[in-house]
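ASSEMBLY PREDICTION REQUEST
Request ID: AP-0331
Submitted by: J.K., bench scientist
Number of chains: two
Total residues: 500
Priority: normal
Notes: Please return the full assembly, not individual chains.
Input sequences:
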Amino acid sequence: MDSIFGISGRDFVLLAADTSQARSIVVLKTDEDKIMKLDDHKLFAMAGENGDRTAFCEYIQKNLHLYYYRNDLKLSTRAAANYTRKELAEALRSDPYNVNLLLAGYDEEEGASLYFIDYLSSMSKVPFGAHGYAGFFLSGLLDRYWQKDMDREQVLALADRCINELRTRLLVAGNNFTIKIVDKDGIQVVKAASS
Amino acid sequence: RKMRKAKRKTRRNMMTIWIRMMSMLILDLLDRRIELKVSRYRLARALHLPSKSSKMARRYDARTTTFSPEGRLYQVEYAMEAISHAGTCVGLLGADGVVLAAEKKVTSKLLEPLAQSEKMYRIDDHIGCAVAGITSDANILVNYARETAQRYTFSYQEPEPVEQLVRTICDLKQGYTQFGGQRPFGVSMLYAGWDKHFGFQLYQSDPSGNYGGWKATSIGAGNASAASMLKSDYKPELTVAECLQFAVKILAKTIDSSALNHERLEFATLTKKGDGRLVWHMLSPQEIDDLIKRTPLEPKEDENK
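STATUS: Completed
Returned structure:
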């Protein structure tokens, strides 16, 4: 079961995802990168069934690129999140995608924002969030320790706390996590999937 | 002898009738031929074609989707010809908004004015347009534009950038020049809009599906005289209020002054209020009459005479 979570700080958002890919009792790989770059200032953390996860997110990514090439304009984070939600909603009643997402982005007008989108295509702009089993363990933790406008060190410390919690208490948590941050300068990989 | 005389008479009468009939027929044919020749010639002149190829024009203009040997699409040009008989529309990009002005081609005193305008339409909260050409065609395009704008907002939850909307409508118009065998839309449109990327914008599209962004432009019957006035007197620093007066002056050139009132003219402005809200305002009849009164108009030469 994928664990993903996101924490927003002052003018940046951090996304973290576990890197194990498993089927039943077999671990297929331990360096799967579940945080996809949508464009220079947007990140998608994806959780769910592997086929749907990659197919849906690549579909969104390519459509965003098409929009960019057609119109020479970048979509705002809010517009991209709503577009994603609409695609999920349209497929929901015929051929649903089993994907949970966290979309993090930075744009000039809104600053940094984090959107929680779930497989039933419900969507919320949130200061922090987690999907899957991780949510059970981390919601309380983040409620307790998250504050508005934290700086980078504080958010990284909080993320480490979350990861340790999952390693300690979650049975199916992966050992390794990938961490990426998006801010006005773009995307930085704090911890790569393959390390 | 009497019988022979009678026979000769009937034969002469029959001959006269026959000759008369034949001559009528021949003259008819000739007339038609001459008519054709004259109209063909006129058309060729109007389209700046060499009159030699005016005969060829006939062969290539019936189907919308065929090129002529000179590389033209005649149906598209004929559509633009239709628009050149429609009421003038003028668009002006001001420093703080966009102004659209139109002259209604009122055909009869007996016409009851419609509840909705025939020249200006609102496409979305942030885009409006003025049309020139076949009104029924314009209705279809405006409806399509409205749907396009809402479809975008449904997907992205924000207003569609103006150029994208214009491009979508123009892609529709282009289709009618390339396939399907249906005639093109006989409508040119002026779009006034605002978006967060480029602020206030003015676009013009025509039946070919081409569009351009403009600081000031005009379409319809008086567009040649309007264009010359715009070229000489337009300045980008003009405010919306000044643009409105400028538009009155331009339209005054194409209509006679007795008809310069709210029954013949329509004005619309797209501006931003202090709180950032966009306002599409169609001037009321009273406001139009006040505007005309306020505008210093040069008396026309023939009036002085």
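REVIEWER COMMENTS: Chain B touches chain A at residues 154-158, 161, 163-164, 196-197 (CB under 8 Å).
SIGN-OFF: pending second reviewer
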